[in-house]
Amino acid sequence: MKHRLGELAAEQHGGRPFVGPQQERITVNQLLDGLQQDYELRDKFTVKVASVVKPLRDRFGTWRAAEVTSDAVAKYIANLREKGYCNSTVNHRTQLLRQAFKVAIRHKLVSVALFIPRLSEIGNERQGFFETSDFDAVTSHLPEYLRDFARFGFLTGWRKGSISSLRWADVGEDVIYLRAENSKSRKPETMPLEGELFDIIERRRTAAVLEDENGSKRFAEFVFHRKGQPIGDFRKAWATACKLANVDHRLFHDLRRTASRNMISAGAPQAVAMKITGHRTDSMFRRYAIVNEEQKREALAKTQQYLATIPARKVVAIGKTGT
Fold first, then answer.
1. Which parts of the chain sit beneath pLDDT 70?
2. Which helix (H) or strand (E) holds 190?
3. Using one digit for the tens of pLDDT, what is the confidence trace for 155-203?
4. What are the boundaries of each domain within the chain?
5. What would the pLDDT profile of 114-129 be if each residue is shown by its tens digit?
6. Reported pTM
C-alpha cells in the first residue's frame, strides 16, 4: 500500500503514471483484440488490416501493455527500416498499435496513451504504372483465372479487394454494383459495362459454369474466382509473370495509377474519372494520375503551337512631349 501511495504521489509530481494491478496484467494481444472488435463494430476490419495486425502480435503480442515504451517502439521502427520497409508501411503498423492503446484507454483497460512518432511520407509515394505493351506482356504470363481479373483492374482502376468481392448478384444487364462494405470509402459504387468490360463479363459468365467430380454442374458465386473460390493472395504469381515478361516488378495496385493516368490522357473529365476509380479527393487522384515525360513534352509542344498562331501585336512608339 505504501508503494502504491508512493507511485500516486510521484505521478502528481511528473513521475511515472500509476498503473493498477489489473492494468499491469493486460497484454498487447488483448489490446489488439479490443481494436479488432472496435473495427468490426464499425465494419472497418478487413483482410488487409488483419495482415498488418499479425506482425504486431508476433513482435509485441505477449508483452504486457505497461512494458511497451516509446523507446521499445522506436527500436521496432528502426528495425523495420533496416529491413527495407518504407515509411508508409511502418506507419500503417504503428498507427494500429497507437489506435489499440486509444481504444484500451476508452475502455479503461490502460490509463496512459503511448507516444508513437509518425514518419514522413514525403517522396515516399510509389510512381509505378504500366504502359499498355508492358501490361499485355505481364498478362500473357498470368494464370488463366487471373487474366480477366487483371484486365478489369487495368481498365477501371478498382482496388484488388473490390474486384475479388464481386458476385454475380452484383451484376446487372449493363452495370456492375460495388457494395458499400466492399468499398474502401464505405460507399456503394457503380461501373457501366462498356466496350471491353462487357466482353470480360461475358467471358466470366462462361467460366462461371463449374462441373463437379460427379458430373453435376453449378454456377460460381463470384465473378472472378479460382475453381469456384474467391481469388485470394496472388503476389507470387504476379511477381513470376513480371519476371517472365521482363518487366521490372510492379504491384497490382499500380494498375490503379495506370487507369487514372489513361483516363485523363484520353480526355475524360477528372470528376468522371474519379467516379470510375472510386477516388474521393482531388489530392489523392492527382497523386495517382502520374504524368510522364512524353505527356509533358506533348503539352509543351501544343502550347508553343498555340502561341505561334497568335498574331503579333503592333507596337506604336510614343513620341516625346514637344517633338
1. 1-23, 122-127, 183-186, 280-300, 303, 306-307, 310, 312-323
2. strand 189-192
3. 988 888 889 999 999 998 888 888 777 766 667 788 888 889 999 999 9
4. 2-106, 132-300
5. 888 888 876 555 567 8
6. 0.60
- Decide if 236 contacts 228 (C-beta within 8 A): no
Ramachandran area for residue 157 (φ above 0: left; ψ -120 to 50: alpha; else beta):
left
Domain spanning 2-106, CATH architecture: Orthogonal Bundle (1.10)
Which parts of 118-188 are beta strand (E)? 175-178
Alpha helices in the chain (DSSP H): 2-12, 21-25, 28-41, 47-60, 70-82, 87-106, 132-140, 144-156, 160-164, 196-207, 235-244, 254-265, 270-277, 282-288, 293-309
The CATH homologous superfamily to which domain 132-300 belongs is Intergrase catalytic core (1.10.443.10)
> 167: Cβ–Cβ under 8 A, 6 or more apart, which residues?
221, 222, 223
Identify residue 24 by its one-letter amino acid code: E
Lookup: cell for 12: 502528481
Q: Of 135, 139, 129, 138, whose CA–CA distance to 293 is shortest? A: 129
